[in-house]
From TrEMBL:
Family, per entry: Belongs to the UPF0102 family.
Molecular functions (GO terms): nucleic acid binding
InterPro entries per UniProt: Restrct_endonuc-II-like, tRNA_endonuc-like_dom_sf, UPF0102_YraN-like
Highest taxon, organism lineage: Bacteria
Species assigned in the record: Leptonema illini
Name this polypeptide is given: YraN family protein
């Protein structure tokens, strides 16, 4: 299932802490960026880079350019059918549940589910969702950019790295 053993180790670690796997080895449609793992836990979508090294400092790989690329990939993914379908397969949908879509992801009205927004405007390095929402505001989910470093078998999970 996973391309690299480090990604599998990271997934097993996250799974044991209550994460649900949405995607692994996600690539943007233009293939400029890959995100190793995308998970969901407690209403937070985690975009996770996995570094499995023998030595070194993995946080140094997360420079401004990489951060901009990952943010852009997150916006694209959260506006995609893949994210929408993953969330709908996880959520138990009932007429009583509703997520405040504002400029967000879904509205549940009398049992009907509809998609509300997608990335549509390119503003240089970033993409934005339609409406007045910030680029990563989905109304129902927050976002965390994480790093899992595995050095000599020791796992360190840094949440909200940037």
């Amino acid at each position: 299932m996973f391309r690299h053993s480090g990604e599998e180790k990271a997934w097993l670690y996250l799974q044991g802490r209550g994460h649900r796997l949405l995607e692994h080895n996600y690539r943007t449609p233009d293939r400029r960026t890959e995100i190793d793992l995308i998970t969901l836990k407690d209403g937070v979508v985690h975009f996770i880079e996995v570094k499995d090294w023998k030595s070194g400092i993995p946080t140094l790989t997360q420079n401004r350019k990489r951060q901009a690329m990952v943010r852009r990939a997150a916006v694209i993914y959260m506006g995609s059918d893949g994210f929408y379908n993953s969330i709908m397969s996880i959520r138990e949908i009932s007429p009583e549940k509703s997520m405040d879509a504002g400029d967000g992801l879904v509205v549940i009205d009398a049992g009907m589910v509809s998609r509300m927004s997608a990335p549509e405007c390119d503003t240089g390095d970033e993409l934005c969702l339609t409406g007045s929402a910030s680029p990563l505001d989905t109304g129902a989910y927050s976002v965390s950019f994480d790093l899992i470093s595995i050095i000599n078998g020791q796992i360190e999970h840094i949440e909200r790295l940037f």
